[in-house]
Amino acid sequence: MGTEKTNKGLMETTVFEKYESNVRSYCRKYPTVFTKAKGSILTDQTGKEYIDFLCGAGACNYGHNNDYIKSKVIEYLQSDGLIHGLDMYSAAKAEFIETLENKILIPRGFNYKILFPGPTGTNAVEAALKIARKVKGRSHMLALMGGFHGMSLGSLAVTTERVARDACGVHLSDVTHVPHPAIFKNFDTIDYIETILNNDHSGVDKPAGIIIESVQGEGGINVLPAQWLKDIRALCDRHDMLLIADEIQSDCGRCGAFFSFERAGIQPDIVVMAKSIGGIGLPAAITLVKPEYDVLQPGEHNGTFRGFQPSFIAGKAAIDYFVKEHIDEMAVRKGEIIAKFLSEHIPLINSEIECRGLGVMWGIDMRDYPLGTTQAIRKKCFENGLILELSGSEDTVIKIMPAITIDEETLVKGLEIVYKSVKEIIQTL
Q1: pLDDT by residue (tens digit) across 12-64?
Q2: Any idea what DSSP says for residue 141?
Q3: HEC string for the chain
Q4: Average pLDDT over residues 284-312
Q5: pLDDT at 420 over 70
Q6: SS3 for 244?
Q7: pLDDT tens digit string along 71-113?
Q8: 413: buried, middle or exposed (CB in 10 Å: 19+, 13-18, 0-12)?
Q9: Strand pairing partners for 209?
Q10: pLDDT, position 1
Q11: What pLDDT, on a 0 to 100 scale, did the predictor assign at position 185?
């Protein structure tokens, strides 16, 4: 059977509805067939263009089909370079490791072993949790409310999203979720954690560590204050716990610095990375571990696709590009444009609407409006030629996450579509 097409030669979506699993998600929000992507523009089969504020859920920080990164991958493929390598030695991996160390880690004073856990972020989180528990000989973990860390069982246990947790069908244990300072604004969350660790009647077992996102993505763009990050680092040291930083969505320059926690001047014990570390959306994930905690023995954590060589090529090229093009500075400039636009326009709709973010990762919190409002706004944005996602409790936060490399004209045009769409929907309520 051939591909189902209309009499105009366009592909029908019925092929997906007929054969693809019901679990599919994004296609329901953006019901068109895409055929091309370049920079910050997605094009569907009818030729309609959409500004991309979704950015592959953070996997395409440097834009779709970035010319420099793509050229390195094409060159490698044309040379018949090794594609699948498990964790065997390869030239591609060696060059990636050296580039990551010499251009990112060493200049920041970071000393980490690099663990390749598999192709996705949840693989990196599972490895981090496994390491923390083995190092400390304790099974319990702490995690923040609002955190999202992956869809496999260990990662789900430290995730708080109800829909994701309920779908797994088993009890998720050995984790205590503690208040996030953005959710409990007048509550000393550090003091709370200190109390449950010191009080022998708290009912909380001593944890091996705590996992945090410096900037929560799926949790609603909740930014941890720099002082809080310093305090949690000190708390972990006092209580013999490992600090795990989940940078999967907020790294590779998205929040300004290469790592979003850099603004606090701290060094986590373990850092998990994925998404844009693959350069142009190729699957890649990394768990960075302080050498003294590199305790997993050969084969104790592995995966068939932990050595996808094109990702090493793209990842090295992306780091070179990050340094050469000063992507961190670019993210700061674009972040200032977003912040200025939102501060000038959103109050014209309602001065009570909260906008928050860091670098090129922002949210518009519509929690005071009826449920379904943000879904209508997302649909209106799509109709107006913009793709974005929602996050936070009940999906009440509009997520603005374009490529760092987006040109300023397109960025502002996209922001104007967001403003126009929000205004149109609010006026109908």
Answers
A1: 888 899 999 999 999 999 999 999 999 999 999 999 999 999 999 999 999 99
A2: E
A3: CCCCECCCCCECCHHHHHHCCCCCCHHHHCCCCEEEEEECEEEECCCCEEEECCHHHHCCCCCECCHHHHHHHHHHHHCCCCCECCCCCCHHHHHHHHHHHHHHHHHHCCCCEEECCCCCHHHHHHHHHHHHHHHHCCCCEEEECCCCCCCCHHHHHCCCCHHHHHHCCCCCCCEEEECCCCCCCCCCHHHHHHHHHHCCCCCCCCCCEEEECCEECCCCCEECCHHHHHHHHHHHHHCCCEEEEECCCCCCCCCCCCCHHHHHCCCCCEEEECHHHHCCCCCCCEEEECHHHCCCCCCCCCCCCCCEHHHHHHHHHHHHHHHHCCHHHHHHHHHHHHHHHHHHHHHHHCCCCEEEEECCEEEEECCCCCCCHHHHHHHHHHHCCEECEEECHHHCEEEECCCCCCCHHHHHHHHHHHHHHHHHHHHHC
A4: 96
A5: yes
A6: strand
A7: 999 999 999 999 999 999 999 999 999 999 999 999 999 999 9
A8: middle
A9: 141, 242
A10: 37
A11: 87
- Which tokens in the block code for residue 123? 């693989």
Name the token pair of 428.
Answer: 């109908």
